[in-house]
Amino acid sequence: MTEALEGLYRAEWGRLLSALIRAFGDFDLAEDVLQDAFASALTEWESSPPKNARGWLYTAARHNAIDQLRRRSRFADKQALIAAERADAEMSEETAVPDERLPLIFTCCHPALAPEAQVALTLRTLCGLTTEEIARAFLVPVATMAQRLVRAKAKIRDARIPYRVPEISELAERLDEVMAVLYLVFNEGYSADQRSDLCRDAIGLARMLRDLLPGGSAELDALLALMLFHDSRRNARRDDAGDIVLLSEQDRTRWDRAEIEEAKTIVTSALRRRTLGTYAIEAAIAAVHADADDAAGTDWPQIVGLYDRLYALHESPVVALNRAVAVAMASGPEAALLLVEALSGELASYHLFHATRADLLRRLGRQDAAIGSYRRAHALAQNEADRRFLSRRIDEITR
Predict the structure, then answer these.
(1) CA distance 185 to 227
(2) Which has the closest alpha carbon to 117: 94, 140, 89?
(3) pLDDT > 90 fraction of the chain, expressed in percent and rounded
């Protein structure tokens, strides 16, 4: 039962919470009653699981929220109570739970909130990550992240930030923030163990956004294509033991060809609009990988050229590191190592910098130096699967 509820929590948290926030206009109340509903389900479902688990949780949470509002005396709460009770009279466990995730993401990504608060609040409310998980993703103490979330919710309440999808005239200026958060949510699911539900959430929200925009958006199309390209490799990214399989070693027959073909169609249309942003170039890089039968047959010079264009738009040391990996495949590890070493100051605390450097040193036969870099990467890695992979590499070289 615990395992089943954990799966339900990951799959349904965002939809249930967004519906409760819409119904009661209170983030904290919605979170509290939904957590209580899951706790009640743990005992009550043992003998008689409901046919409609989502409906049961939503109904239980609503009843709890109404009970809490009855015990309060503030006039604003009385108004919310009257509205909630009217709606509740018509509800049952079989009532469909409304999908209010799209308005919630625009609320979480409102420009009145700091960028780091936007991402943290989205991960907490839409994706159900715990404060500890979000703090780990941001590399900050749990207490710091808890305060950040409290301040973000207070800002929404005090500034009366509306819980709605913006008007068409506002969408364009709000879209960049939302796309950035969607991609961070996707990457959290893509890099974390057993969080493919976050990838599905991000892809689903991107599709909903596309349906909203009259005339569409080339960058939103490109972002959707990019996420689909990455998601298509999900079944090949882990072996039977759950350990990481590098892109160059993946069994490409396990890639989801339907997702790849959809992504190709979308990104081709986006590229024709000739307004290339970062997502469009990243999607083009992913498309080059998808076109190759294996790593050796990949058009690495083309990928290097695309990374040049990406770096011109976004001068990020991580982009430069990824470009160096492509240079290693196109021109050899020695040329790439010089590029990687130049990034040591900016990426000293980034585990993939040390893992990349270690791999280049290994390919050049400098085994002792490679082991040192692999060990540094292992010490910095946040993900257990990453640590297992790095341990394997160290063992291989040591043997």
Answers:
(1) 11
(2) 140
(3) 45
Residue at token pair 């309440």: 157
Question: Is the per-residue pLDDT at 96 higher than 70?
Answer: no
Torsions phi, psi of 269, nearest 5? -65, -40
Q: Tell me how far apart the alpha carbons of residues 181 and 199 are, in angstroms, rounded to a whole number.
A: 12
pLDDT at 119: 84
Q: Which tens digits make up the pLDDT trace of 78-89?
A: 555 555 555 555
- Phi first, then psi, for residue 94 (nearest 5°) are -90, -5
Answer whether 288's CB lies under 8 Å from 231's CB: no
Closest-CA residue to 304 (of 277, 335, 259): 335
Which residue's entry shows tokens 């943290």? 120
- What is the C-alpha to C-alpha distance for residues 222 and 23, in angstroms, rounded to an integer? 34
Q: How would you write the chain as a 3-class SS string?
A: CHHHHHHHHHHHHHHHHHHHHHHHCCHHHHHHHHHHHHHHHHHHCCCCCCCCHHHHHHHHHHHHHHHHHHHCCCHHHHHHHHHHHHHHCCCCCCCCCCCCHHHHHHHHCCCCCCHHHHHHHHHHHCCCCCHHHHHHHHCCCHHHHHHHHHHHHHHHHHCCCCCCCCCHHHHHHHHHHHHHHHHHHHHHHHHCCCCHHHHHHHHHHHHHHHHHCCCCCHHHHHHHHHHHHHHCCHHHCECCCCCECCHHHCCHHHCCHHHHHHHHHHHHHHHHCCCCCHHHHHHHHHHHHHHCCCCCCCCHHHHHHHHHHHHHHCCCHHHHHHHHHHHHHHHCHHHHHHHHHCCCCCCCCCHHHHHHHHHHHHHCCCHHHHHHHHHHHHHHCCCHHHHHHHHHHHHHHHC
- CB–CB of 171/213 below 8 Å? yes
Torsion of CA 295, 301, 303, 306, to 10 degrees: 180
CA distances from 230 to 257, 260, 283, 289, 325 (A): 12, 9, 9, 10, 18
Q: Report the alpha-carbon distance of residue 287 to residue 223 in Å, rounded.
A: 13
Distance CA 363, CA 105 (A): 45
Q: Of 202, 75, 73, which is closest to residue 129 (Cα–Cα)?
A: 202
What span, in angstroms and rounded, lies between the C-alpha atoms of 25 and 22?
Answer: 6
pLDDT at 332: 95
Rounded to the nearest angstrom, the gap between the alpha carbon of residue 137 and the centroid of all alpha carbons in its chain is 11
